[in-house]
């Protein structure tokens, strides 16, 4: 299935844009990646993606230094778990997932979607 992964560049590496620390994942074009072994993955949280490129781009516009990549995904999660705010992981869920958010077990970056949208 095709989806869209939002990532950021840190020291030349593509990494998770929405999480940090032990939860952050490094992505390489063409390689399958799974969620890092962490508090979140042990509770069933997978990798976040957008299921629509325009929703990914709209979310991306609110942050700087973010890129959107088209991706293949495996193990799509049917029902998203509650959204957690990382500094308050032991609290109840807060807020809603951005519209168009999906979650899956594995992601493989295919190509940058930035050119696709701007042409």
Structure overview:
This protein has 119 residues and is mainly beta. It is 11% helix and 35% strand. The protein has a six-stranded antiparallel beta sheet with strand order 3-2-1-6-8-4. Strands 5-7 form a two-stranded antiparallel ribbon. β1 and β2 (13-16) form a beta hairpin. The protein starts with a strand and ends with a helix. The relative contact order is 0.28.
Features:
6-stranded antiparallel β-sheet, 8 strands, mainly beta, 2 helices, 119 residues, 35% strand
Order of helices and strands: EEEEEHEEEH
Measured by DSSP, the beta-strand proportion falls in: 35-45%
Q: What is the end-to-end distance?
A: 23 Å
Helix content range: 10-25%
- Tertiary shape: globular
> Helix count, per DSSP?
2
Strand order of the largest sheet: 3-2-1-6-8-4
Radius of gyration: 14 Å
Largest sheet: 6 strands, antiparallel
Alpha-beta classification: mainly beta
| Average pLDDT level | 86
Question: Care to count the β-strands?
Answer: 8
User: Oligomeric form of this entry?
Assistant: single chain
What is the number of domains?
Answer: 1
Poorly predicted runs are 88-93
